[in-house]
Amino acid sequence: MKGFTPLEKLKISTSGPARVVNPSASTTGFTLIETIIYVALFALLMSGVVVSIHPLFSGIERMNERIMVENEVAVVSRTITSLIPQAQFVSVPSSGGSGDTLTLTTYSLPPQITYSFKVEGGAVVASVFGSPWTNLTASRVHFDSMSVSHVAASGGVPAYIELSYVVDGETFGPIRSYLTN
Questions:
Q1: Which end of the chain is more exposed for a tag (fewer CB within 10 A), N or C?
Q2: What dihedral do alpha carbons 36, 42, 45, 46 form, nearest 10°?
Q3: pLDDT band at 5 (very low <50, low <70, confident <90, very high)
């Protein structure tokens, strides 16, 4: 019969009150209360770990967003500033002036090429030869404004264009590029 312990295998204690002891029963395991306490302590420890790691992950997310914005500003700035040294003429803003649009003309090849840049609808846009405006930026980043200053040559310092951007409420710049022609 299953579950039946024959009498000869039972040990009967002769000291104290009569008790029947089952020799096959293990006395080395954990009780239910001990197990519940260990599980509760483990859960408390793990919640502390999760609470301490969460700021790390949110910090990484903010850092990735910051890097994306800085990369977008760098791409736009390199695109514009690569043309400034080649410019033969800057019409907007005029020398000594400032504004939110940059228009310059290059003569690097036989035909003259006129480029215009401004912020429109949260993006930096460009126009070549008066063509329709084309986005230079990705839609992930919102450009609030662009400031352009045309500083005249003085005291041995050549004329230069200074660009600043406001992206998602944060100012980037000024970025200076000298006119060499």
A1: N
A2: -120
A3: low
